[in-house]
Amino acid sequence: MPKITFIEPGGKQRTVEAPVGTTVMENAIKNGVPGIVAECGGACSCATCHVHVDEAWKEKVGPPSPMEEDMLDFAFDVRANSRLSCQIQVTEDLDGLVVHTPAQQG
Amino acid sequence: MSKASTSEPIKTDAVIIGAGPVGLFAVFELGLLDLKAHVVDILTKPGGQCAELYPEKPIYDIPGWPMITGEGLVENLLAQVKPFHPHFHLGERVESLTRQQDKSFRLTTDVGTVIDAKVVVIAAGGGSFESKRPPLEGLEVYEGKSVFYLVRKIEDFRGKRIVIAGGGDSALDWTLNLAPVAKSLTLLHRRDQFRAAPDSVLKMKALAAEGKIKFELGQLHALEGEGGQLSRVIAARDDKSEFPIEADVLLPFFGLTMKLGPLANWGLELENGLLKVDTEKFQSSEPGIFAIGDINTYPGKLKLILSGFHEAALMSQAAARIVNPEKRIVFQYTTTSTSLLKKLKAS
């Protein structure tokens, strides 16, 4: 099963197993990863599951959709590698994915 | 849609905090038992999360509806509660809740509405929707003095150097509305695209072209000032370079988030930020104060709209016994009871 590593701003890491077809956000919530709020439950309408995709993974994960890019307007510290984790679907290709949680979601 | 009333308290049987689907259905269930309800919500429209977070998203687990949108569900619920003429107090946040000598409750909102009710139903979902606060050091010192999340009176901003941050409708609308009174106005947004009405964007760009406002690409980075009075907003570009914007006030518009808010201070028993209730009456640790929907917790709780509906029905039985202790409650079906049918068709 693919693994995803979440890194907090303080540097604390945690790696979780993420079934193919689920979203990165769902795995964060299921495993109680701090820093992912996901207020709207994955509807791409709240921007509280914002992550910075690790530079090494940016290409593979790809850019946000136009709707997601719009939603990122409501996040803080938005960077070129910003994504909403509810919009990243886990695939075998993403095994080992590293994402960073921001200092504050909202 | 009542405005601030400061003098005479409104008297009612039940006051419901939260106009989401569960709060709305509570109006219906209380109504069947002849309890009149007032509903308070911080949002300016009924529907709660269904209206604010996912109006267009399909919901698949409402019994009897293979698929319905958040907006559709709210519309149907509003039609369903219409016979009971609920009074809505929208755009108001409940600030305090106290018990009075006659055992009734007095609830006060942030705009001064006072409601006296025999029972209180907290159907506040994930809490109240409040403006997102940007993660800036020392922000709280400026809040309410020179950093604001809403504009109550345009005149308060006359002659000021205003910075508006964000790229949604609120940011654009206030840019257009405050530009005529501002000494200077800068709109700060992270990109050259806006999630706002295209017409507002065109108008904003025209103002910028005429030099009446300034549009800057960047994000909030830091605040400078003294004693809560802002002097400069420091913005950062994508390449991390920083630049200052002279400012008297900052208006950040980054949407809403849910916070538990004042109800955390009402002395009710909480567990992980949720109100503990029993599963017979859905009553909180304070008799007469009920909690239904996502805001409550009990063994086996599921945060589903349908669970909230069930909780509303049982809560209403208990609430009716408090409001009308002398009255015997006869269990009836809406399909066959002549008295219930009369109430439902009374509108």
Structure description:
The complex is a heterodimer of chains A (106) and B (347). The longest helix of chain A is centred in the first third of the chain and has 7 residues, at 24-30. Helices cover 16% and strands 20% of the residues of chain A. The mean pLDDT of chain A is 94. With 106 residues, chain A is of the alpha+beta class. Chain B folds into two domains: 10-129 and 257-345, 3-Layer(bba) Sandwich (FAD/NAD(P)-binding domain), CATH 3.50.50; 133-254, FAD/NAD(P)-binding domain. Helices cover 24% and strands 29% of the residues of chain B. In chain B, α1 (21-32) runs parallel beside α3, α1 packs parallel to α7 (305-323) and α5 crosses α6 (198-209). The interface between A and B is medium-sized, with 23 and 25 residues.
β content of chain B, as a range? 25-35%
Q: pLDDT below 50 for ≥5 consecutive residues: which ranges of chain A?
A: none
Tell me the number of structural domains of chain B. 2
**Radius of gyration of chain A, CA atoms, in whole angstroms:** 12 Å
- The fold-level CATH name of the largest domain in chain B is FAD/NAD(P)-binding domain
Which term fits the overall shape of chain B?
A: elongated
Helix count from the secondary structure assignment of chain A? 3
CATH superfamily of the largest domain in chain B: FAD/NAD(P)-binding domain
Greatest interface (CB-CB under 8 A), with counts per chain: A-B, 23 and 25 residues
Brief rundown of the structure:
Chain A is an alpha+beta fold and 106 residues long. Chain A has helices at 24-30, 58-61, 66-71; strands spanning 3-7, 13-17, 50-53, 82-84, 97-100.
What attributes characterize this protein structure?
heterodimer, A: 106 residues, alpha+beta, Ubiquitin-like (UB roll), globular, B: 347 residues, alpha/beta, FAD/NAD(P)-binding domain, seven-stranded mixed sheet, 8 helices, elongated
